[in-house]
Amino acid sequence: MTRTYIRDFHGDDLDQIVRLWGQVTRENEWPIYSLAEVIASCQQDHAVVAVQGELLVGAAVGRGAHAQGWIVFFGTIDDAGSEVSSSLLHALERKMAPLGLAKLSVLIPEAEGLGAFTENGFHVHHSVRYLERAMPIQRREIDALKEVGGRILPPHLWDRVAGMTHEKTLLEERLVTPLARPELAERFGVVPPRAVMLFGPPGTGKTTFARAVASRLDWPFVELFPSRLADGGSGLAGGLRASFETIDELEHAVVFIDEVEEIASRRGGTPPSPTQGVTNELLKLVADFRDREG
Ligand SMILES: Nc1ncnc2c1ncn2[C@@H]1O[C@H](COP(=O)(O)OP(=O)(O)O)[C@@H](O)[C@H]1O
Ligand SMILES: [Mg+2]
To answer: Mean pLDDT in the chain?
Structure first.
């Protein structure tokens, strides 16, 4: 049998790390650290590998976070043997020693054996559970969101809408649930409306409802103000078009146009009203918007 060596990670190991990650995480379908995180740590943090000849048979990848270090990936091929696991852990620990960490932590699936870890001095905490929240805004969306002045609203706004049970049930069944759970909507053949008109005298809860829907979906809330739309220099219609182009870069959004009758009035009349072009533009934009998933 070829001897196993432990050495530092090199850029050339990346292909094999990706393959190993695929093998190790297959049964554990919900890896805590994504492949992108593992690769980032291989390149920027600390990684050691076990190799037999050309073949990579194991890897241990860690990152420091102030005084605490985290192992973001640890895996060996099935027949690598427990000695390889133990040597990898030891090598990673040595590599991270200069950071002066107070402790090194690792999260592993419940079903996985603890052997190599406990043998290397890791202590098991039985009383913890792992939680995570998927961030409603991804990094690539930050600029677009800022540009249109969108934001994530606090949770529970939906629960705070008092009374109006008929309207709440209607929106819940027809809008919120189908948007929040598209796979369920598809199964039952429900096509969610993607544009909703809220109407009523001032103070009847239109803005409150729009915000509540965004909060409920955990989607960013983008409010378009007529005054700001006209600022761009290309007029209201141009401002609308530019805003919707930016909104298009967001995965999801609840776009709220308050006092819409101010910018988009009824069409027709002689002579045509000066905002007729804006109404036309808005109708076109809303139609395109409907074709989009989020
Ligand atoms: N169903 C409701 N439950 C709780 N507060 C409400 C409700 N409807 C309206 N409000 C409150 O009344 C005020 C006016 O509501 P708002 O949503 O701004 O009305 P609109 O946009 O129709 O003019 C807000 O302070 C809002 O919090
Ligand atoms: Mg309002």
So the answer is: 90
